[in-house]
Amino acid sequence: MIVAIEGIDGAGKTTQAKRLVRFLRSKGVAAEYTSEPTGSALGRMIKSYLRRGGANPHLLALLFAADRIYHLNKVVNPMLERGQVVVCDRYLYSSYAYQGVMTGSPLWVREINKMAPHPDIAVLLDISVEEALRRKKKRIRFEDPGFLEEVRREYLRLCEAGLMVKVDAGGGVDVVFGELVRVVAPRLGLRPSA
Ligand code: TYD
After folding, report:
1. How far apart are CA 23 and CA 75, in angstroms?
2. For the chain, domain boundaries
3. What is the largest CA-CA distance in the chain?
4. Atom of ligand 1 at shortest distance to CA of 140?
5. Is there an atom of ligand 1 within 6 Å of 113 CB?
6. Does the beta carbon of 94 sit less than 6 angstroms from any atom of ligand 1?
7. Considering the domain 2-188, what is its CATH architecture?
8. Quick one: which of 131, 127, 124, 181 has its CA closest to 157?
């Protein structure tokens, strides 16, 4: 199973995804944490483009898709084959949201990502852009609040379309985690308490 944790920058994905892995392991579920963009050469290229800014959005979309193929082949699929639950810190719907908005070609973004299976569970850690910018002490990659608003709206649309489940990530870490577990646990046949 692939459990994807999604949200705009500053939503707390990494903290919650890692905690979810610890929680699942404590319940006897073999779980692994992984994230996109990866640490591969492609991932490093993406990160350097993002740092420098001004990269062509279609080029970035293709790089994210290529890095995803690498990630699936080298990391995710082997984990799935070992019977592990893969908790993925950003996955396919990051491209639907970010690259969809960035390129203005959401259907093309879906097309170039067709090789990636949809996650079994996808959670949107939803937070206002204002709160996200406040939380993020390190330099945020896509600082433009207008852009992040659009990305958030796109994520919310994916929730309305039934692809993702929304969790309010505006509260404290424990509260948000409790909500996350309530969403994920029953789908894995576990009791819904953190
Ligand atoms: P991430 O590693 O989550 O950021 P951080 O280093 O701050 O934890 O992701 C880096 C950026 O890449 C993030 O702003 C979102 C963006 N991104 C996309 O635009 N599309 C994608 O498909 C993915 C996976 C990430």
Report:
1. 21
2. 2-188
3. 46
4. 7
5. no
6. yes
7. 3-Layer(aba) Sandwich (3.40)
8. 124
**Which residue is associated with the tokens 């990530």?**
169
Q: Which residue has the tokens 């699936």?
A: 72
Whether the CB of 64 sits within 6 Å of ligand 1: yes
Ligand 1 atom index nearest CA of 98? 19
pLDDT digits 0-9 by tens, 76-87: 999 999 999 999
Q: Are 14 and 125 in contact (CB under 8 A)?
A: no
Ligand 1 pocket, 9 CB below 6 A? Answer: yes
Dump pLDDT digits (tens) for 76-115.
Answer: 999 999 999 999 999 999 999 999 999 999 999 999 999 9
Distance 16 CA to ligand 1 centre (A): 16
Q: How far apart are CA 22 and CA 100, in angstroms?
A: 32
CA of 36, closest atom in ligand 1: 24
User: DSSP label at 116?
Assistant: S
